[in-house]
Amino acid sequence: MFYWRSVLLVFLGACSYGMLSTFVKLAYKDGFTSAEVSGSQMFIGACLMWVLTLILGRGKTSPRQWLLLIGVGVGTGLTGIFYYQSLRYIPASIAIVLLFQFTWIGVLVESVLTRTRPGMDRIAALVLLFIGTILAGGVLEGELRNFSWMGLIYGLLSAVTYAFFIICSGRVATSVNPWLRSSFMLVGAVLITFIVYPPVFLVNGSLVHGLLKWGILLALFGAIVPTLFFTFGTPHIGGSLATIMGSAELPMAVFMSSFVLGEQVSIVRWLGVAIILVGITIPELTRRRKKRFKQVEQ
Q1: pTM for this one?
Q2: Alpha-carbon distance 60 to 183, whole Å?
Q3: Are 94 and 142 in contact (CB under 8 A)?
Q4: How many Å apart are CA 66 and CA 98, to the nearest integer?
Q5: What is the 3-state secondary structure (H, E, C) of 176-233?
Q6: What confidence tens digit (pLDDT) does each residue in 228-237 have?
Q7: Positive or negative, the Cα torsion across 64, 68, 69, 74?
Q8: Is residue 129 a contact partner of residue 100, using CB atoms and an 8 Å limit?
Q9: CA–CA separation, 117 vs 227, rounded Å?
């Protein structure tokens, strides 16, 4: 039961990330910039998380653990920065496919760290996730001629930093209370975001003119929920499976675009969503089958 709860938490954390693109588009529609959106998301998220931690979190941490967790948080902050930068140079359909290279990167890094070869179930899942991402991301319907080396570099960097965050969230300072871990991670995300995007939104009046609403929504679904859920769940299922479960982000993004924004989603993209969902379930179905065989043998 505890294992299944961890799987569900990671899955929901990824779905939470998938809701971001819809809220970001709505915030842009209201006239706010990427700097204001990113900065308010991380700042409000960190403030709310620390309030929750003071109420619910207990435990001790060492200065070394603080620094390690802040470093992990820098990874999630950089993911958003790199991804938003990639969108300046290439179509969103290509950028999301580049971001989703975190799946095989995460599995590869986890294999190196654990010195184990990924099983055929993981490899099959990665193949399906790649195919599904191509279809769900709309690459076949996109503008491939709008290619840019800068967009490619930023997109791949977002994949690397996202994989780094998922794996490290399950390995770094796991003995620390999850609420404290999440709070220190968000400190790192805020620091790197403010370095890249100076927090002028704190003094230019944007918060009282509508940004606060979007900042709270983005903080909830883009900072608090995913960071906390990955922190609780990843240590119990491993970074390899967590990266595969993280692919739930794209199907949720497609669902939100269709049902909230009212965007037309082609049959090809829905097929890609279905393939991704199948790919996510393969490792778990394989685990259950192996467990059943062992019980029969005993």
Answers
A1: 0.82
A2: 13
A3: yes
A4: 31
A5: CCHHHHHHHHHHHHHHHHHHHCCCHHHCCCCHHHCHHHHHHHHHHHHHHHHHHHHHHH
A6: 898 888 888 8
A7: positive
A8: yes
A9: 28
